[in-house]
Amino acid sequence: MLTYLGTAPAEHNRHAVLLLHAFPLSAAMWQPQIDALGQAGYRVVAPNVYGIEGSEERTGWDFTAYAHELAGLLDSLNIEKVTVAGLSMGGYQAFEFWRLYPERTSSLVLCDTRAEGDLPEARAVREEFIAAVEALGAVEAARRMIPNYFAQKTYSERPELAKEASEMIEKQPARIINAAMRAIMTRADSSALLDSICCPVLVLNGAEDRLTTPETAATISGCIPGSRLLLLAGAGHISNLESPAAFNQALLDHLESVNRA
Question: Per the domain annotation, does 143 fall within a domain?
Answer without folding.
Answer: no
